[in-house]
Specification:
The strands form two sheets. This protein has a six-stranded parallel sheet with strand order 1-10-7-4-2-3, sandwiched between helices. Strands 8-5-6-9 form a four-stranded mixed sheet, sandwiched between helices. A hairpin with a 4-residue loop joins strand 5 and strand 6. The mean pLDDT is 96. The protein has helices spanning 3-22, 33-43, 56-61, 63-69, 83-93, 120-126, 145-163, 170-173; strands spanning 26-30, 50-52, 74-75, 98-102, 105-107, 112-116, 131-137, 141-143, 189-193, 202-207. The protein has eight helices and ten strands. It has 213 residues and is α/β, with parallel strands linked by helices. The radius of gyration is 17 Å and the shape is globular. Bound molecules: iron/sulfur cluster. Iron/sulfur cluster is lined by residues 157-158, 161, 169-171, 177-180, 185-187.
Length: 213
């Protein structure tokens, strides 16, 4: 990433953090993913249970590996033998002490926008785990709420559909979201979190770099 990006992101993150704090979200500004990982590790009580949702940014940070290394109690749906067990683990994740995730898009005013398939990630962000820690690259800050929803629907979701190797959806066949209702559609819930009902429940790690899509 260029110095121009970093300088811009620093100023933008400072402005955005005030908006996020005003909405009862906590903010940790990090230069990079390594710093975000170290700060998250310091925040998480090593004895408490951690669950996590699908996130490329989280994966890239290697936080999950670091938690396993220190013997953190974990709920990991990726270890399920079959779909039934996977759903059980996703339900259990809603009772975890910590939930790790990313956010698909943040408006300049600090609203959080997520598009979800099953809905487990949006559910955990909304209610259940005592603490939610979200890693977000500053490239996910898009403008007003309408623009942010559009970007999440028109850019993030189709790229996720491509990553997940969907076959039949308009975003795969034509490269454009067709607002589909197909069986394999991954855009079943579009959620806006405008404020945290509890202060200090949801911490946004704003990373001064480009991560995820
Ligand atoms: S609504 Fe359908 S076409 Fe649009 S991004 Fe989601 S899966 Fe693709």
């Amino acid at each position: 990433m260029t110095t121009i990006h970093q300088t811009f992101y620093q100023a933008a993150a400072k402005t955005l953090s005030k908006k996020l704090l005003n909405r009862n979200f906590q903010v940790v500004i990090c230069e990079n993913l390594t710093e975000a990982k170290e700060k998250a590790l310091a925040l998480i009580d090593p004895k408490k249970v951690v669950a996590f949702g699908g996130s490329e940014t989280l994966k890239d940070s290697q936080l999950i590996e670091a938690l396993y290394e220190r013997q953190q109690p974990m709920i990991n749906r990726e270890l399920a033998k079959d779909l039934a067990e996977r759903h059980q683990l996703m339900k259990q994740a809603l009772t975890a002490d910590y939930f790790l995730t990313s956010i698909n898009g943040i408006s300049e005013d600090g609203e959080l926008v997520n598009v979800d398939n099953v809905g487990n990630r949006v559910a955990a962000i909304t209610y259940g785990p005592d603490k939610v820690l979200a890693f977000v690259g500053m490239n996910k800050v898009y403008g007003n709420l309408e623009t942010t929803i559009q970007m999440v629907r028109k850019k993030t979701a189709p790229l996720n559909a491509t990553r997940l190797n969907l076959q039949k959806t308009p975003c795969i066949k034509k490269g454009v979201c067709g607002d589909c209702f197909l069986e394999e559609c991954i855009c079943n819930t579009i959620a806006v979190t405008r404020r945290s009902w509890q202060a200090e429940r949801l911490t946004i790690f704003l990373i001064l770099d480009n991560h995820g899509y």
